[in-house]
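re: ur question from yesterday

yeah so i grabbed the chain u mentioned. its 169 aa long if i counted rite. heres the sequnce exactly as i have it in my notes:
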Amino acid sequence: MFNLRMSGMSFDSGLQIVQADVLLSIDGETVIEEPLCIDVGLPALLLSGLEEMEPYRWAPANEWRRMPFFVCGCGDPECRGYSFRVKHTGGGQSEWTLVEEAEDGTYREHETYRISADECRTQLLELGERFLAFVEPLDYNPYFADTVPVVKELVARLKHSAGGADGGR
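ran it thru and got these structure tokens back, copy pasting raw so excuse formatting
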């Protein structure tokens, strides 16, 4: 069972980031439970419901597809981040592997989790919609300037994939 919950969203206007209390549990195991910045990696997280992902936390902002899904909100890019490699294995399953990245592009694999792709997409869609509603009234100017338009596009793609028999692929 895949459970991704983000509660207590807040906006740091100085850093121009959105933070939340993140809880990620898979098959009853708590993988992440702490306050983190969610908007830096949100586009990559949403895309993971549709495509395979290979992270690289040192990528420039325009390579948003490679960002860690969750990072520390302190503003230091060297600080803690949670990166996942995501593979869609067929049969309605996805495989999330927690990885520890090195600046040279290599990474060390940690735990691997098999999850229901539909269950994941449903929760990602809800998260994307909540994020858009949260930032709409804000004077929000993130490091990746196209965060909101990209999230809107990915939410639309996730909605479309929910209605398709092929899961969006």
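noticed a couple things. Residues 164-169 have pLDDT under 50 and may be disordered. also The longest strand covers residues 2-12.
anyway ttyl
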